[in-house]
Amino acid sequence: MFAADHLTLGIFLPLRFYQGDMAVLHAQAQHVSEIERLGFAAVWVRDVPLFDPAFGDAGQVFDPFVYLGYLAAHTRHIALVTGSAIFTLRHPIDLAKSAASLDRLSGGRLVMGIASGDRAVEFPAYGLAHDQRGERFAHSVDYFRQLLAQGPATIRSPLGQMSGTQLLPQPVTGRIPLIVTGSSRQSLQWLGEQADGWLTYPDATHTAQGPLRLAEKVRAWRSQIPNGGFRPHMTNEWIDLDEDPDFPRTPLQGGYVLKTGRNGLIALLGEWKAAGVNHAALGIQMARRPVDEVIQELAEEVLPLFPTLQGPAPLAQGW
Hints:
With 319 residues, the protein is of the alpha/beta class. The radius of gyration is 19 Å and the shape is globular. It has an eight-stranded parallel beta barrel, surrounded by four helices. It has one domain (8-305): Alpha-Beta Barrel (TIM Barrel). Helix content is 31%, strand content 19%. β1, α1 (28-38) and β2 form a beta-alpha-beta unit. It comes from Pseudomonas qingdaonensis. Keywords: Flavoprotein, FMN, Monooxygenase, Oxidoreductase. InterPro entries: Diverse_substr_monoxygenases, Luciferase-like_dom, Luciferase-like_sf, Luciferase-type_oxidoreductase.
């Protein structure tokens, strides 16, 4: 997925939004197998524990770890990404157990986008205070990483105490990358020091000014990375890909969706690459054209310009 001065493409799931009928998710795994075959770098799933009709978006519907485990069995090498696991609502032991299990079962293909949560209605359901999510998020990240360290751990955290025990299994490489979403109510310094990568909203996508503002944000974050080492930046957009390749970049639904032809999308991706973005996750839930048609056009006309990197082969997956 990631290299300096390079941009790769992923696809956000679901391919069609749930609107009261689970049938829209039928055969999605077969589409994911085709997305892998066509050469996309990653598939992304969201984490929405409770559907809030007032929010209007049920997200992926399935539990992200269960569903990525299912997709791992239907694929062999595509990266499997949470976008994003809510680190405030689950205990870090449960998060680490699920994540390490999925990483092992998939041969080391898990990348974890993580977030502090933006749906206030979920927090009282868990018995948690919404206004304390920033502090809980930071504690959870620290606890999670200590759990995945080698050997028995001694942990003293506001989220729990443990000594002399160990979490199994361990991740394939000993570490699972944590991609922080937005600020997650942390300082830019914390994001520079603690985030293995950063996922942010793209700003406006119908003009060149949005990517320029995004570039400023990326530079400010990277200035906080200790020793100036490379860490990837990601962004995403929901697109309605028009049949006319020259259809201009046009914001819909208050800027939530970008209607564009493929040439406008290619221009946007080039602007993102110049801004320092290393991976773009595209959601096609709002596209009016059939899913397979949109995926095929992206694969044939756009993906060759932003090719997936030749990463290491996944490890054992024959569990």
